[in-house]
Amino acid sequence: xxxxxxxxxxxxxxxxxxxxxxxxxxxxxxxxxxxxxxxxxxxxxxxxxxxxxxxxxxxxxxxxxxxxxxxxxxxxxxxxxxxxxxxxxxxxxxxxxxxxxxxxxxxxxxxxxxxxxxxxxxxxxxxxxxxxxxxxxxxxxxxxxxxxxxxxxxxxxxxxxxxxxxxxxxxxxxxxxxxxxxxxxxxxxxxxxxxxxxxxxxxxxxxxxxxxxxxxxxxxxxxxxxxxxxxxxxxxxxxxxxxx
Length: 244
Description:
Blueprint: H1 8-20, H2 22-28, H3 30-38, H4 47-82, H5 86-105, H6 120-132, H7 139-149, H8 155-167, H9 170-189, H10 192-203, H11 205-240
């Protein structure tokens, strides 16, 4: 099995990272969701209409994650074909990123959040466009706004994009980013009492530690699989090389 493939374990890991990274999402996107709701004129705040707007916003947001993942994976594919040994480097990077994500989930290391500054230059250009779409009263507007806000600087998203680079297959990376986006939905959509309950569950040390250990186990398995592959290749090379 290819350690960078998109079978159930990697997709599940991406979903869990999105789900348990939700505490960060509540802080960053929760305010946007509230602003989106309250910007709708009071006469148009029917539950069905609001549900459609929130759905459109999140579909746009997740779509932008998937597009970004596919583009980064395309870059990884180009590098992979240009450099003979880069495929191995990318697969090691994929496993390392899983471990770093697990450390974040368990609250053992917050270094991933430091890379958010990387996207602030781009965000300064995108944010004004999003403001022009407010107030949002139609689903296409909500989708467009979500597509723009999906590019907000976020260490969690950037770490997932680094994993997408390692996958180096656009369709698989898009699926992974989609799974991550779906994982963020409970935290982003929750409000009021529900938000507090979701936050309590997400912040539970037992929940986060268990998820982190499962992801680390999967990452270590990936590294062991790579080590075994390298060992077999070395053995094969030794057996087929001419003796002098």
